[in-house]
Amino acid sequence: MSGKSLDDILAPFEPTPKEAYNTILEDLGELKPGEIYLELGAGTFDLGFIAVKKYHTAKAFGIEMDEKLVNEVKGRIKKEVLENRIKIFLGNALKPTPEMKKIMRKADLVYIFLTPGGNLMVEPVLKEYLKDVARVVSYNDWIDGWYYSRVKDVYAPSFFRHSFILYRMKEVREEMRRQKSIKIR
Ligand SMILES: C[S@@+](CC[C@H](N)C(=O)[O-])C[C@H]1O[C@@H](n2cnc3c(N)ncnc32)[C@H](O)[C@@H]1O
Prior knowledge:
By secondary structure, the protein is an alpha/beta fold. The chain contains 6 helices and 7 strands, in the order H-E-H-E-H-E-H-E-H-E-E-E-H. The protein has a 7-stranded mixed β-sheet with strand order 3-2-1-4-5-7-6, sandwiched between helices. The chain binds S-adenosylmethionine.
């Protein structure tokens, strides 16, 4: 770890199964050429490489607090000569630097694979920085209090069944405002 507090750990490392890649990026994420892909807690960032190579995103950004993983990703970026398309930050997604905030504001699709507690902790960051047209796909765990758009289950030999949940920021914010106005009345 890069000297970060244990309180800031959103999830231990575990890779997303390959069988779910298309569900995350295409079926739910609707990733389009020229868009910006962002992963919070990026791990080995395999989805970032697929985002640029298969879905032709303009850029893929990852934020990861484990220095060893970040160095692995940096090595792969260099080996595949993708420095202009992929960038991985060593840092804490809960305490974004000004550069990370800028990317969060631009991101079209954000993917998170965290624990339920991690989702709770990262929720204010997503709400504060993501634009209205941004989509968020979460692996397995709900974002408490958020209105979801779609859920898709993936079955595969390497893992039993897992759900992926799509949120659209515009709908999330509209529903929050609606709930608030009901409470006030
Ligand atoms: C369950 S893994 C998911 C890895 C990758 N996103 C994937 O799907 O293959 C969660 C990752 O989040 C990272 N992480 C945990 N807390 C973090 C934080 N506060 N900021 C950035 N990364 C964090 C962990 O080091 C780990 O690599």
